[in-house]
Design goal:
With 332 residues, the chain is α/β, with parallel strands linked by helices. The protein has a domain of 206 residues: TIM Barrel (Alpha-Beta Barrel), CATH 3.20.20.70. Helix 3 runs parallel beside helix 4 and helix 8 crosses helix 14. Bound molecules: nicotinamide-adenine-dinucleotide.
Length: 332
């Protein structure tokens, strides 16, 4: 067993959190991850209204008795949601674990803390992590440049971000972005993380509520199959490199693009059809560079068991290296 401050705080067996993925963090996905020993996370904004989130929370409870969380991400939106109402409903429903992410999370974090909840805040810079720490978050999720979705604008890869995090942060942190196998998981622990967050890897599981064609597309992909859109709008997002993404990038490259010029191409409503219909070119869909590491479609239980076993074997191997070579000690 891999026991860390994260497993103790959340009451989970494996220190692995499922990322709050738009259109994917639905009750069956969340319950599968939690039942497998990780932390499943419902994506609040994948529900059309706060009342629909209430229903989704109740549905998740029917599928698992294990802890799970709710993600609320604050980013530019075509129809800005009533974030406070989503938050209120989740608290009313007794949710105790929240993942926050995005811009100006202060009021949301303060609200959850005032309600006695555990807050995991995801961010892409050390300065934002330190601000969130001051607001009282319990765990930071440090999101490296490899991640799917929004990596921020600083372009710092996970290796350096995590090494900085361990020096700068007082609260436990988990590693997010670029992790999809036991080596990445063990590396995150070696870098001082109390666990990991995975999104793209969980999309490629039996229980992920997306079309089989998309799972197979991920398996067939390499690490070169993602691209950034919205760079020119300072809302950078890493998405699957398909026809629509290339069209968006082309419009941005011409210069002076406004959101209105690409709005119809990038809308979440259109991206959702990719997962429903199984055509990877129907719209924009988030994917991390880990698409190059994913070669199978296991159940969540098999995935977490294999990761756990793999991490334990790697750590045992490293210990042996330290003992036999006597040179692998790590200066503080
Ligand atoms: P949407 O249809 O409102 O927007 C689609 C994309 O365009 C999103 O990436 C959004 O950030 C971006 N966007 C919207 N308005 C913009 C503007 N004025 N300038 C620059 N970029 C703009 O998004 P949706 O798919 O319906 O999702 C709703 C919200 O959830 C969005 O804010 C989105 O970013 C966020 N989201 C959350 C997750 C998550 O994991 N929780 C993942 C993806 C997106």
């Amino acid at each position: 067993m891999i026991v860390t401050p994260l497993t103790k705080l959340l009451g989970i067996r494996v220190p692995a959190v499922q990322g709050g993925m738009q259109w994917v963090g639905l009750p069956p996905m969340v319950a599968a991850v939690s039942n497998a020993g990780g932390l499943g996370v419902l994506t609040a904004l994948s529900q059309p209204s706060p009342d629909a989130l209430r229903v989704a929370i109740r549905e998740t409870r029917k599928l698992t008795s294990k802890p799970f969380g709710v993600n609320i991400t604050l980013l530019p939106s075509i129809n800005p949601p009533d974030y406070a109402a989503y938050a209120r409903v989740a608290v009313e429903e007794g949710v105790k674990i929240f993942e926050t992410a995005g811009n100006n999370p202060g009021p949301l974090i303060q609200y959850f803390k005032s309600q006695g909840c555990i807050v995991i805040h995801k961010c892409t810079t050390i300065r934002h992590a330190k601000s969130a720490e001051k607001l009282g978050v319990d765990v930071l999720s440090i999101d490296g440049f490899e991640c799917a979705g929004h990596p921020g604008e600083d372009d710092i890869g996970g290796l350096v971000l995590l090494a900085r995090a361990v020096k700068e942060l007082k609260v436990p942190f988990i590693a997010s972005g670029g992790i999809a196998d036991a080596r990445g998981f063990a590396a995150a622990l070696a870098l001082g993380a109390a666990g990991i967050n995975m999104g793209t890897r969980f999309m490629c599981t039996v229980e992920a509520p997306i079309h089989q064609n998309i799972k197979e597309k991920i398996v067939a992909s390499t690490e070169r199959d993602t691209i950034h859109i919205f760079r020119s709008l300072r809302n950078t997002a890493r998405v699957y490199k398909n026809k629509v993404a290339m069209e968006v990038v082309e419009i941005e490259r011409r210069g002076n693009a406004k959101f209105e010029d690409i709005k119809d191409l990038v809308s979440g409503a259109r991206g959702r059809l990719v997962y429903e219909k199984g055509d990877p070119d129907l719209g924009i869909w988030s994917a991390g560079v880990t698409v190059g590491l994913i070669n199978d479609i296991p159940t969540c239980e098999q995935l977490l068991k294999d990761l756990e076993k793999g991490v334990e074997a790697i750590i045992a191997g490293l210990n042996k290296v330290v003992v036999t070579e006597g040179s692998a000690s790590c200066p503080a």
